[in-house]
Amino acid sequence: MAYQLQLLRNLIQRHPERAGNLELHVRALEQSIEQLPNTCLASVRTIFEAAQASIGLSLNIEFGRDGLPGRMTKVIEAFDFTMIDHPDGDKIHEELSALIKGIEETTTALARLSNIPNMRHGGALD
Asked: In angstroms, rounded to a whole number, what is the distance separating the alpha carbons of residues 117 and 65?
């Protein structure tokens, strides 16, 4: 049985109008996990970069020469996660802030890992 990123595939299936070219990147990551595990880091980074570009375009974010973590920070700052009308708005804001911090830290770690020689390109000489 082929490896599948089930949650991402489910998301694409439920919202094809919003998926853009995500399926292409998901397929590449699934293939690298199964057939070329040494290239997974590059595939994951590519998914992050594609998502940032897509969201950035929709929200008119100018990335300039920002690196992966800088672009993620700009994407996160562009969203408004306040829940003023919800009775548990403060708790929701607190939990979303923790989640966002985790995403930002994950992006920074991904960028640092991919800057280590031989990590991003599956053992190829950088």
From this structure: 22
